[in-house]
């Protein structure tokens, strides 16, 4: 997979996890996952890279990750795998943070989000996150990553993919619509209004 003349796209691996975590925390600084700290976010992306229920793509230049996108084929299955295989590790990393009632509430909201999605007849596959480093922005990289990810979804015979995005994040809302996602519904996510978009991959 090629991206411009200097950048390669690769499948995400555990060796990318630390850089991907740094990009996530920088690019989604106000997000709940970012608030859990670099060690937890790194462990999360290591687990995503290893899970059969998820995959991702990184844009790399000279061993530096300049952007990434991650997907899950089934967000509910991904949570189950992460808890079963990495639950103890996550519990240790979160031990100090779990004492906060607000964080506990958000953790449970995150875990039970898939069940809420099922009641709204939304697809199980989901685009989890996409971030591009500041030096690589303005070149259409986020769109290229998303389009490559959707192409891989088609190869996996996934027919529809959803994405959750904060309503106030206008650039991200516009980006997903440009990539073929259509508005489906809105939900409360950690006290913030968020929109859910769905891409129908069976359409040309």
Automatic annotation (TrEMBL):
Domain N-acetyltransferase stretches: 7-203
Record keywords, A-Z: Acyltransferase, Transferase
GO molecular function, one term: acyltransferase activity, transferring groups other than amino-acyl groups
Statement: the UniProt record of this protein carries the keyword Cell membrane: no
Keyword Transferase attached: yes
Protein name (database record): Putative acetyltransferase
UniProt source species: Anaerohalosphaera lusitana
Lineage: Bacteria, Pseudomonadati, Planctomycetota, Phycisphaerae, Sedimentisphaerales
